[in-house]
Write a structure and sequence with these properties.
The complex is a heterodimer of chains A (about 220) and B (about 350).
Chain A lengths: L2 H13 L3 H13 L4 H21 L5 H24 L8 E6 L7 H12 L3 E4 L6 H10 L5 E6 L3 H16 L6 E6 L5 H7 L8 H12 L1
Parallel strand pairs in A: 1-2, 1-3, 3-4
Chain B lengths: L4 E4 L5 E4 L1 H19 L6 H12 L16 E2 L4 H4 L13 H10 L5 E4 L13 H14 L4 E5 L16 H6 L3 H28 L4 E7 L4 H17 L4 E6 L12 E2 L2 E2 L5 H11 L3 E3 L10 H18 L23 H15 L5
Parallel strand pairs in B: 3-4, 4-5, 5-6, 6-7, 7-10
Antiparallel strand pairs in B: 1-2, 8-9
Helix pairs in contact in B: 1-2, 1-10, 2-11, 4-5, 5-7, 7-8, 8-9, 9-10, 10-11
The chains are: A alpha/beta (about 220), B alpha/beta (about 350).
């Protein structure tokens, strides 16, 4: 089997939500001498992108994207020790994910956490209705590392809190210690620019792509 | 200097745009609907007409004479005695007074009696009170009075109900269990709606309003369609209004089907035939407002979607017009300039049968 065929198998196992198949294809890729990074970039991540596009086009739905994420997680369990051996520094980084204070809508937040985890981030999930003080505390603890703050807000009212988050991080001298991504229904690129955050994304799959780009 | 016209953003903020900017937004909104729903574009004449409606200098506008349509009122009397937290204006009044004010002062063509909790499940323990209120209202009113509430299948999951929360199950990757939980909840929701409406019909109700079908995803729609079907069988002459929660049926289950059609991912023009097939008299299509876009963008998009739904529907369409739907900005008390313009556009361009 050629290298491309092996990578295609990885990609297709993700697209078809084949968890056991993903595990087998991952082991086969490593056995064939394909590096963990290549397996992710050339196979698994491509599968997740296709899944994300299908989700966006309403061709597949929440349960299917979750199953693909589960398949991705299964592959990452095998690849994570290999990534460490391949010396990619401290890995992709840590993602602190949360839902803004005053908001308990967490479907998007959960999906994004899953997708980021599946794409190699170490996830610190703070849950819903998270006050800014908690965020400051966690960022202080992890200062000096590669940290991505990923906040979600479904409502316009809670979205306004994202501005306060950026402000408080500036006041605490922590703004340069983290990359900041915000998402949720009312969040737009214009809003991100206005409050001085780094990025937003259209959906969970896109969030993983944007996050990886931010951490490069 | 170029003339600028006052209109709103989707969050209600005033903006001033030139005709060129308005036309660009109208086209972009329309294109978004065409792309998502795979439906026809509006014609050049229709876009011109939308432009005319948006740029009319009056504070509010109305439909042309002879194009008047019935207006139906959901949320019951909560609009009066509720507070700003639930779309009311805080006038202390009984539900009887509220219904009669809607009939005799507001010009409502049909009216809905609803409970303060406004979901079917919480009505069960207070069914006797609801029956009594319905009877007294019917004795004092002429216009059709429906009983209405939200199917709101979310109330059947933990911590509010007996079934495990699919959100928690999915997070643990227990996808099959999540789907089974939705299926169980849907059965109970159907049963509860039918049980409640049997009692309300015995108290003189003229029919039922399903308000925000699909708010909890495709299982919510599945349960509602089956409830409509059961009620139609039992009450052939009953008036059944089926209003949707959103433009796209969210696929939280992803595989639930009605009459061979998978519910997840359906747009208004695809929802309409299923609602008719189940036995509803009226379909209430919804298009959601994007708060980051202008009124022109939202209206172009909403009219394109609703026009396609009206065309596809074999039963009358009463479009949902209110805060955050039908092109109207997302405000508790939506501005009359936007409400009246969006309503006029829906009647004269999308061809809706009522609002």
């Amino acid at each position: 089997m050629s290298k491309q065929e092996i990578l295609d198998n990885l990609r297709d196992a993700i697209i078809t939500q084949n968890i056991n198949g993903t595990v087998e294809a991952t082991k086969a890729a490593l056995a064939a001498g394909i590096s963990a990074v290549e397996a992710i970039d050339g196979g698994l991540a491509m599968g997740m992108k296709i899944v994300g596009d299908k989700f966006e086009a309403a061709e597949i739905y929440l349960p299917q994207i979750m199953m693909s994420a589960k398949a991705m997680n299964a592959a990452m369990e095998i690849l994570t020790p290999e990534l460490a051996k391949e010396k990619v520094g401290e890995g992709v980084g840590m993602a602190i994910t949360y839902v803004q204070e005053g908001d308990i809508h967490d479907i998007g937040h959960r999906l994004v956490s899953t997708m980021l985890g599946a794409n190699g981030f170490k996830i610190l999930d703070l849950g819903v209705d998270v006050p800014n003080e908690t965020l400051v505390e966690e960022i202080k603890k992890n200062k000096g590392g590669k940290v991505l703050l990923v906040g979600s807000a479904l409502m316009t009212t809670s979205m306004l809190g994202q501005k306060d988050t950026v402000e408080i991080l500036k006041e605490e001298g922590l703004r340069d210690s983290v990359k900041i991504m915000f998402g949720g229904a009312p969040v737009s690129q214009k809003w991100i620019a206005e409050i001085g955050a780094d990025a937003t994304a259209e959906n969970a799959a896109d969030a993983a792509r944007v996050a990886l780009g931010l951490m490069k | 200097m170029t003339t600028e016209h006052m209109l709103r953003m989707g969050d209600g903020k005033r903006v001033y745009l030139t005709k060129e900017q308005i036309l660009t937004d109208l086209r972009d909104g329309m294109a978004d609907a065409v792309d998502l729903g795979d439906i026809p574009e509006l014609s050049g004449d229709e876009l011109d007409k939308l432009m005319d409606i948006i740029t009319m200098p009056s504070r509010m506008v109305g439909v042309e004479a002879g194009m008047e349509v019935p207006v139906t009122h959901d949320i019951g009397t909560i609009r009066l005695d509720g507070d700003q937290g639930n779309s009311g204006v805080g006038i202390p009044s009984s539900r009887l007074v509220g219904c009669m004010v809607h009939e005799r002062a507001f010009g409502a063509d049909t009216m809905e009696l609803g409970h303060i909790d406004y979901s079917y499940k919480p009505v069960k323990p207070v069914i006797a009170q609801e029956m009594q209120t319905m009877e007294v209202c019917q004795q004092n009113m002429v216009i059709p009075l429906l009983y209405g509430a939200m199917p709101n299948m979310g109330l059947y999951y933990t911590p509010d109900g007996p079934f495990e929360n699919p959100g928690d199950l999915m997070k643990a990757f227990k996808i099959q269990e999540a789907q089974e939980s939705m299926e169980h909840a849907a059965k109970h929701l159907t049963r509860d709606i039918v049980w409640i409406m049997q009692r309300m019909m015995a108290s003189g109700a003229d029919g039922v309003n399903f308000d925000t079908i699909g708010a909890a995803g495709d299982g919510d729609m599945y349960a509602s369609l089956h409830a409509i079907e059961a009620l139609r069988k039992q009450y052939p002459d009953m008036y059944i209004e089926a209003g949707m929660a959103g433009e796209l049926m969210l696929g939280l289950h992803g595989e639930m089907a009605y009459d061979g059609t998978v519910l997840a991912g359906l747009w208004p023009h695809q929802q309409a035939p299923l609602v008719a097939k189940a036995g509803a008299n009226i379909f209430g299509p919804v298009v959601n407002t994007n708060t980051s876009k202008s009124f022109a963008w939202n209206l172009g998009r909403a009219v394109t979607f609703i026009k396609a739904a009206v065309k596809a529907s074999s039963i009358p369409c009463h479009v949902n017009m209110g805060m955050g739907v039908g092109g109207i900005p997302m405000l508790e008390t939506p501005t009359i300039d936007a409400v009246s313009r969006a309503s006029k556009a829906m009647v004269e361009l999308a061809g809706v049968d009522g609002i």
